[in-house]
Write a structure and sequence with these properties.
The protein has 137 residues and is mainly alpha-helical. The chain has one domain: Orthogonal Bundle (Cytochrome Bc1 Complex, Chain D, domain 2), CATH 1.10.760. The chain is built from five helices and two strands; from the N terminus they run H-H-H-E-E-H-H. It has a two-stranded antiparallel ribbon with strand order 1-2. Strand 1 and strand 2 form a beta hairpin. Helix 1 packs across helix 4, helix 3 crosses helix 5 and helix 4 crosses helix 5. It starts with a helix and ends with a helix.
């Protein structure tokens, strides 16, 4: 009996499930971004003047390792940051505790794959590991 058709069918179902989950993740990430992040970083990720840095086509996002960004989102960030050639000196509040690790991975993945960014997906495991490292000092 030729197993190739069964393997092909299994792969199709696996890929379809992944696409569906990814669409849910993106929708959840966008929802959280709209609830919490867009007030400062704006609808289009362009930031707000000299107060809040842009997330759109951000060289900070492309150059900074995922663990650092996750920890900044989870624990907040205070102080200077240079984004796309401009210096910002302010404070980013941490995400509220109501957001679970899955929510955090979804919203960061949303930012990493939208607004002209191409950093990729963040997993729930990466968020959990970053949280264990604690706040960046």
């Amino acid at each position: 009996m030729d197993k190739k058709p069964f393997i092909a069918l299994f792969i199709c179902f696996a890929v379809a499930g992944t696409v569906y989950t990814s669409a849910q993740d993106v929708n959840n990430g966008k929802k959280i971004y709209n609830e919490y992040c867009k007030t400062c970083h704006q609808d289009n990720g362009q930031g707000l003047g000299v107060v809040y840095p842009p997330l759109a086509k951000s060289d900070y996002i492309s150059k900074t390792d995922k663990q650092t960004i996750i920890r900044e989102v989870v624990f907040g960030k205070v102080g200077k940051v240079k984004v796309n050639g401009k210096e910002f000196n302010g404070m980013m509040m941490p995400l509220p505790p109501k957001y679970k690790d899955k929510d955090i991975s979804d919203v960061i993945s949303y930012v990493f794959t939208n607004f002209g960014n191409k950093k990729g997906k963040v997993t729930e495991k990466e968020v959990t590991a970053a949280k264990k490292k604690g706040k960046i000092k």
